[in-house]
Each structure stands twice: as C-alpha cells, then as structure tokens.
Amino acid sequence: MFHAATQKPGPASPPTKLIAMTDIPTARDRLRDLILELAVVRGKVTLSSGKEADYYIDLRRVTLHHEASALVGQVMLELLDNAGITFQSAGGLTMGADPVGTALMHVAAREERAIDAFVVRKVQKTYGMGRQVEGPDVAGRDVVVLEDTSTTGGSALTAVEGVRKAGGNVKAVAVIVDRDTGSKERIEAEAGVPYLFAYSKDELGLE
C-alpha cells in the first residue's frame, strides 16, 4: 500500500501590505510638488508686467515637462469641471498658454471628450489668412482662456479680446498659479467672466 507523503507547511507568506489611498499622491498634489521643484526661482526679478518680485515662477519648466504636462491637463480640466464650466475649446496668448491648452486637449481626448486647443497671437497677422486666433475656428463656440500664471491679467485680457473678435464665446479664464496681485479682480471686472486658478501663492508657500 502506498501512502501519500505528508507535505510540511512552508514558512508563512508575509502579509500583503495594503497601500492606503492617502499614501498615493493625487495628480494635484504631485503637480504642486513639481511646480515647487522645477518652476519656482528665488531672488529679485522683474516680471513681464514691469513689477518686481522676490521670486519667479517659470511654469514652462512644468508645462513642457514629460511628467508634469499630463498632470497640468488633468488638474486644469478638473478645475473647470468642478466649477461647472462647459466648453469646446481652450487656449490663450502665445506662448505661456500654448502647452497648457494642448495638455488639457490631450487629457480630454483620453476621456473621449472633444475639446480643441487654440493659440492667440499677440497681434493679428497682416499676411496669409490674417488670423489672430490659430487652430480650429472658435467662432460660435464656448471657449476657455488659459494662462500658466498671471500677475496683472494683461495677457489673459488680450487673449479674451482676440477670441471675442474671432467670434468665440469666452466662458472663463483659468490659470495654473495665481500670484494674488489683482488679476482676478481685474479680469472679472473687465472681461465679465469667472477667473479660476488651480493654486494660490499661499498654497505654494510663496510670500
């Protein structure tokens, strides 16, 4: 008679470590970290508005970064969705807004949402088709004007004016970082649309 060999139990497997959801950084948290790591430059600088500041936020180091770009699109799309802004196209004044618009467009496409991007020239072309707003036509469409950051609101207002001249219906202005230097008040007063931002300077620990 044959007897099956008794198998001795092996060492117990270590318990599986469950990762709490709070341990996984959200897209918003990760983008904030990348902004602080890559974009914030300390020291006296003169901004494009002519104002002086103790720091400079070079957000192109973020919006053109291989990891951060998709996060920018996700965070900005969520910002607009949470505010109830519906739109068909997004963009702003070249060149700070350009990668923000394309990042948002690509994230929307990943979610099977048809949102185009556009680029607003600082001045209208005097040759070719004579356009100021490049990309799919914005005429008759709901659009959002984007910026990477804003100090006085001047760039965003130039973009709003260009889009409206091209027949677009501006629903909101949205920026990644607000410097809390009056852009919100000026844009909402002059453009008559909501001004949204993903991060305040206080949230980034900037004085």
From TrEMBL:
Binding site for 5-phospho-alpha-D-ribose 1-diphosphate: 121-122, 125, 147-155
Required cofactor(s): Mg(2+)
EC number: 2.4.2.10
SUPFAM superfamilies per the UniProt record, alphabetical: PRTase-like
Sequence positions that bind orotate: 151, 179
Transmembrane spans: none
Molecular function via GO: magnesium ion binding; orotate phosphoribosyltransferase activity
GO process terms (BP): 'de novo' UMP biosynthetic process; pyrimidine nucleobase biosynthetic process
Gene3D superfamilies, A to Z: 3.40.50.2020
UniProt pathway annotation: Pyrimidine metabolism; UMP biosynthesis via de novo pathway; UMP from orotate: step 1/2
NCBIfam families according to UniProt: pyrE
Self-association and partners: Homodimer.
Name this protein carries in UniProt: Orotate phosphoribosyltransferase
